[in-house]
Each structure stands twice: as structure tokens, then as C-alpha cells.
């Protein structure tokens, strides 16, 4: 493994578009696993724009990420909810829905849950 690894999301190893043009996931692969940058456009909601790809009732990915810009609401299957915004670190367990709040895209980085995210089941 090299001492320094540099990758750029603008030259991602893989790009996964969301349904209806509501954003995309840019994925870079590293020796330590994939890292993703997702741009969720206003109006994006997991249950409308990723669920058709995932084929599950709610998002079953665990996430550990950082919100670069925009805001998102997350609602767990048990009803627990929270909002995340710029500068927030968030850890989200499997079993949730989420959607963009407001009219600004939500940009998030994730070190855990984007490897298998937005992939056809």
C-alpha cells in the first residue's frame, strides 16, 4: 500500500445516477474500501429515487458521513428522526428513509455505506 493515496471525486471510479435525475453518487475505490460523495438534488427522497434500485422497503445501508452542504431529514423505521446539515458528522444505522430539505442540493461524503448504495438489486 502506498504511503499517500490521492483520488478526486470529479474523476470518480464509478458514477451512479439516482432515479429521475435527482442526483448521483461518485465513488472512489481505495485499498481501505470505497468512499462516496453523493449529491442529492432538491426533491430527492430515498423511497422515491433509490428504493426502485435497492428493492428494499427502507435504506439498509449503514452510513458514517459528513455533510458538506445542504440539509437532509432522516427518519428511522422506528420513527426516530433527525436533520443534518453543513459541518455535521452523522452515523445512521440501516432501516431509514431520508430526503432533501429546502431548495439547495445536499452533498455528503460517506466512508461506510456507499459501496453498495444505489445498485440494482
Low-confidence stretches: none
* CATH-defined architecture: Sandwich
Strand order of the largest sheet: 1-2-3-9-4-7
Overall pLDDT confidence: 94
What features would you describe in this structure?
Residues 63-111 form the Cupin type-2 domain. This is Cupin domain-containing protein. With 121 residues, this protein is mainly beta. It has one domain (12-110): Jelly Rolls. 7% of the residues lie in helices and 43% in strands. The chain contains two helices and nine strands, in the order βββααββββββ. The chain starts with 13 loop residues before the first strand and ends in an 11-residue tail after the last strand. The relative contact order is 0.25.
